[in-house]
Amino acid sequence: MAKRVRSEAGYARKIKDAVHLLFFQHHRLPGVRGWELRQEIGPDWENVLEVLDKQIQPMDLQVTRVLDDPNIIDPDQAQLADARFYITMRSGIDQKSAKTIGWRVDDIAGLAVAIAYIISKQGKAPRTDVEKLLQEKLPGWRVKMSIDRYIQQGYLGEDEKGVLYMDWRSRAEVDQKQLVDLIVSFGKKTESAPSTPREEEDD
């Protein structure tokens, strides 16, 4: 009995350690690598994350894993060690919650437009093209600053040729299909909206 209690206490301590690693930012980017979790928690770190994921589910949170190569379906231990793990919302985030974490509504809209455009270009697009697109909605000085922020926070990546692509946080946090469907449906609503009498007179 005493051995079982010690075992349960040890497992609870490992879950607590996992919480500290995943919830609090230790690096420039949120989350930690698999090898860091293994180093701090032990060889059963994956099981600990599964238990933690179930415990935080009632709070609408989840443990999210992002692999360096998004095309990997069944990662091996080396790939899991290099993967990044962190906490995300299960059901997305609304405008009110976004403001509390320091994001303006137009920041989120700009990121959504940039990601949707990159998706439409098969996953890559010149930064200059994305900037031109965002300048239709945002001041020029805000566009450069916003894209730099998206890159710094891991949502977009930029290669040496100035080409943007979806980085690890976009792959983890953004439902690409839902985003594209929302934009397409919004476009259809705009096209089908009836013209006002003034517009008809101008025609």
Provide an overview of this structure.
The structure is a single chain. The protein is 59% helix and 12% strand. The protein has 203 residues and is mainly alpha-helical. The protein has two domains: 2-91, Aspartate Aminotransferase, domain 1 (Alpha-Beta Complex), CATH 3.90.1150; 96-191, Orthogonal Bundle (Arc Repressor Mutant, subunit A). A three-stranded antiparallel β-sheet has the order 1-3-2. A three-stranded antiparallel β-sheet has the order 4-6-5. Residues 1-6 and 196-203 have low confidence and may be disordered.
Specify the number of helices: 11
Overall mean pLDDT? 78
Strand order of the biggest β-sheet? 1-3-2
Gross geometry: elongated
The overall number of domains is 2
Q: State the end-to-end distance.
A: 85 Å
Order of helices and strands: HEHHEHEHHEHHEEHHH
Cα-atom radius of gyration: 21 Å
Q: Report the CATH C-level class of the largest domain.
A: Mainly Alpha
